[in-house]
Structures are given as structure tokens and as C-alpha cells.
Amino acid sequence: MLKISFEFRKGIFFIRLIGILNKETYRKTAKELEELITKNKFKYIVINTNYLKEIDLIGLNYLIRIYYITKENKGALIVCDKSNILKTLLNDNVPTIKDELEVL
């Protein structure tokens, strides 16, 4: 199960992912989240993955997809990853921070 919470603060769209991001949960949430980002043309997005229990290759590719959507909007994506696992898997292509408060 994946729970997603959103918050827009100081021009930044925060997405908090809680639970499991895998093929099954991706199918249930991908379209809605992508439409929300593209429709509102959010330029600056922070995805907090600190509360993910599990992520598979589909979930990782989904984060990369959001990165490209953000680039198309001429914006920036930052991933909160206190374990640095995603930083390693994303080959430092997407900036990471340990806590979302670092962007404010």
C-alpha cells in the first residue's frame, strides 16, 4: 500500500511517499500524480522518500519519470533520501537531500 500526501509551500510542491512503491501501487497513483504536476505546471518539486518501506525498479523508474516531467516544465526535482540509497541508484542525476526542510 502506498499513501501520498501533497503540500504546496513557498512555491515548492512537496510529495511525501509513505509505504511501498512498486508495480502495483504505481499503477494506482501514477496517472493522477502526473496529471496534477503537469496541469498545475509545478516547477519545483520535492519528493520525500524517507517513509518508503520498499521500492522496486518500476517505482525507481517512476521517480525518474517525474524528474523528466519537471525538466519539461523548466523546473527542478529534489529527492529526500536520508539513506542515500536512491542517490546511488539514480547515479547522482537527481539532487538529493536528507530532510525536506533543507530546501526552505
Give the SSE map.
Blueprint: E1 2-9, E2 12-21, H1 23-40, E3 44-55, H2 57-72, E4 76-80, H3 85-89, E5 96-97
Parallel strand pairs: 2-3, 3-4, 4-5
Antiparallel strand pairs: 1-2
Number of domains in the coordinates? 1
**CATH architecture grouping:** 2-Layer Sandwich
Radius of gyration: 12 Å
Order of helices and strands: EEHEHEHE
| Sheet/helix structural class | alpha/beta
- Major sheet details: 5 strands, mixed
Query: How is the CATH topology named?
Result: Transcription Regulator spoIIAA
Strand content: 35-45%
**Which parts are unreliable, with pLDDT below 50 for 5 consecutive residues or more?**
none
What is the CATH superfamily?
STAS domain
What is the spatial order of strands in the main beta sheet? 1-2-3-4-5
Q: Treating each run of at least 4 consecutive H or I residues as one helix, how many helices?
A: 3
Name the shape in a single word. Answer: globular
Assign the CATH class: Alpha Beta
Number of strands: 5
